[in-house]
Amino acid sequence: MTTIGFVGLGTMGAHMAANIQKAGHRLVVHDMRRAAAERVLAGGAEWAESPKDVAARSDVVFLSLPGPPEVEQVVLNSNSGILAGAHPGMALFDLSTDSPAMVRKFHAALAEKGCEAFDAPVSGGPEGARTGKLAIWCGGDRATYDRCKPILDSFGDQAAYIGPIGTATVAKLVHNMAGYAIGLATAEVFSMGVKAGMDPVDLWAAVRQGALGRRRTFDRVVDQFLVNRYDPPAFQLKLAHKDVSLAVGLGRELGVPMHICEYTLAEMTRALERPGWAGKDSRIPMTLQLERAGVTIDGDPARIKAILDAEKGS
Fold first, then answer.
1. Helix axes 237-254, 167-195, angle to 10 degrees
2. Cis omega (within 30 of 0) on the bond before 126?
3. Which of 105, 172, 280, 312 is catalytic?
């Protein structure tokens, strides 16, 4: 039987470890506070005195820690860390939201001991961790991922191989940053709507029925941005610029600060000033950021269709 090690039994980790245990896996655990492990220990898990001890007794090890400093201490500490107890064939999955530099660092260190390491950040929050409704993005060796997939499936319903080490962390950071940026923009426009006289629940009920509310957030980039196709337009830039100008104008009239929306209008104005762009799709201002970053995005429509079709069939 595969022995699973788990280090970090906090808000997320305690639930994930419990679900691994429910699936019938032998579990070895460690946390800074032994009390955090009481639930899984009562269910038959074994206590380890250190991350080193976890690694020495486990075939696959999972980490759920606050961030890079904690991961570095738990994995790379020369006396008590995972690396000190690592053995050939062991696999490590870092479920934390980490930094690309840190995951590459521990990946290289563990490779010298014949181990495979993954960045495997999760998304779904404490409730997702409790119910097993978690996305688990994995970056590392594909063959090892495939071998460990049944274990990942025991605590997440959407485990996915993303690519080489570090890619999963990049995906998680993009996801989280987008979410918080969208949240702040939402706060701006809702504050404007409420100050203009709308009941917040009525406003929410109305806008969620619109095009933006009906479509998954990241699916909105498929038709134009991801395939670099802004002509023919779904909605012309000049018309979208008018709509955004009206919204920002209302905010100014009401005395509502709208910094993100003001920046959006400025970007759209810069795009509108480009020759020939007024009649192109309203998403074309997004390319201004690509120019500044020196990045080209031109996705393969066939690959995009295959991903969407697979999701429909699942």
1. 60
2. no
3. 172
pLDDT digits (tens, 9 = 90+) for 109-166: 999 999 999 999 999 999 999 999 999 999 999 999 999 999 999 999 999 999 999 9
Integer Rg of the chain from CA: 24
Which residues are CB-neighbours of 193 under 8 A, at least 6 positions away?
A: 200, 203
Known active-site residue 172: yes
- Cβ neighbours for 141, distance < 8 A, ≥ 6 positions apart: 116, 118
Of 94, 4, 110, the closest CA to residue 58 belongs to: 4
Q: Residue 312: is it exposed, middle or buried by C-beta count within 10 angstroms (0-12/13-18/19+)? A: exposed
CA dist., res. 142 & res. 152, Å (int): 14
Strand partners, 4: 27, 60
Using CA atoms, how far apart are residues 233 and 285, in angstroms rounded to an integer? 13
- Of 35, 30, 36, which is closest to residue 7 (Cα–Cα)? 30
Tokens (6 digits) for 29: 């655990």
Contacts of 272 (CB under 8 A, 6+ apart): 237, 238, 241, 278
Tokens 């023919």 belong to: 232
CB 168 within 8 A of CB 121: yes
pTM, 2 dp: 0.89
Give the list of residues 6+ apart from residue 95 with CB closer than 8 angstroms, or none. Answer: 12, 13, 16, 62, 63, 64, 120, 121, 122, 136
d(CA 217, CA 45): 40
